[in-house]
Specification:
alpha+beta, five-stranded antiparallel β-sheet, elongated, 163 residues
Length: 163
């Protein structure tokens, strides 16, 4: 949609003699927009995509996102993303603690452990979200328990009047 607006502006400005050089500027913007869209497509590849760079380690899938040093990987357990870990030149890290891990599995397990403790802590202090709340969340952030609740959920019609 954004590219269409640029093309319309481009065509409109070509007819105006006072807009010298607009063609070059619009072409550059279109190229940058296309490059951004392509890079976002690569970053958001799911672990099942044949073009995704996936590393499978004992119970986890690491999907390369971007970066050179550190390289960023999304961590999946079963079909749910649990977080991100980073591959540095000499070690791995997970961003939730200040530890340096020798192996990616250790960073993933540390991340998973932290997320489990955070989930238990949150559950003990907060009420569980309603099924309607779960429907508003991104699917990658749902836990297996959330999916099970949604499978059993039957929406109730509220405030509807038969005509």
């Amino acid at each position: 949609m954004h590219t269409k607006r640029i093309a319309i502006a481009f065509n409109r400005n070509l007819d105006n003699r006072n807009h010298h050089g607009t063609q070059t500027m619009i072409t550059t913007l279109s190229l940058q927009q296309t490059q951004l869209e392509e890079s976002l497509d690569k970053i958001l590849l799911p672990p099942t995509d044949p073009n995704a760079e996936v590393m499978e380690i004992s119970g986890y899938k690491l999907v390369y996102v971007n970066g050179a040093c550190p390289r960023n990987y999304r961590v999946y357990k079963a079909d749910s993303m649990i977080g991100v870990i980073f591959q540095h030149i000499t070690h791995w890290s997970n961003g939730v603690d200040s530890l340096r891990y020798a192996e990616p599995i250790d960073a993933a397990v540390g991340l998973d452990g932290f997320m489990n403790v955070a989930r238990i802590s949150r559950t003990a202090t907060e009420q569980l979200p309603t099924e309607e709340d779960l429907l508003d969340k991104e699917f990658d952030s749902l836990t297996s328990e959330d999916w099970e609740r949604l499978k059993r959920y039957i929406p109730q019609a509220k405030g509807l009047v038969a005509v």
